[in-house]
Amino acid sequence: MKGYRVCTIACAYLVVALTPATSGMSVAPLLPEIERHIVEAKTDYDRGEFGAARAHAQAVLVGDEITYDVSFVSTSEREQASCRKSLKAAFTTWERELMGTLRFREVPRDEHGRISIVFKPSVRMGAEEVAGFTNWSRRITMDGDKWIDTSFHADMQLRTRDLDFNAMSFEAMRHEGCHEIGHVLGLDDSPHHGDLMGPLEIAHPVNGPTALEASSVRNLRDEARRINDDAQSQDSGKL
What we know:
The protein is α/β, with parallel strands linked by helices. The chain is built from 5 helices and 8 strands, in the order βααβαββββββαα. The protein has one domain (10-238): Collagenase (Catalytic Domain), CATH 3.40.390.10. The strands form 2 sheets. It has a 6-stranded mixed beta sheet with strand order 1-7-8-4-2-3. It is elongated and about 60 Å long.
């Protein structure tokens, strides 16, 4: 198998009691929904709507720690060990790129992590075979202009076998895991081979995000954190 798309992402964007803005921002390559959150955070801050600004900033940040749980479908114990090793490497890669500002922690399946990960021999998006797939939601709850809660959950599927039904290599599974985590963090797909968010070539998987991809996520999170902290300070000053 020469190569195929790593992921077609399905995103659920849910906002309670807020009217979305439509402006965008030029930080690439980001998912439109994430661009929308950061733009609305800035707009709400400028309007003095500090609770709403924090809500959208937190929707980008999704906290300083993200829990995850793992399950397997038709996967042997030996394959499961390889899957876990590749997944841990993917999370460690992003933790390093984000300089320890975000941690990923596994929890038992019955504790329902914020990311639920399923490894299975084949993953499809409709009729199309893909290496991985993530369906996520970010939900904001407001009471008038008061921020109540921002929640996040993602369902992620990662394949263990290629189109010839050979076991995926550690490097290929690390690539697909890093790619899907990139979506969780806000990156969009790239058409360029060699990009983490680009197509997965089974013979040439990448080790992690490019400098541009990593800096895009760092800059996005830094901006969201700045807006959140400034809005929190302004809110405290009102009391």
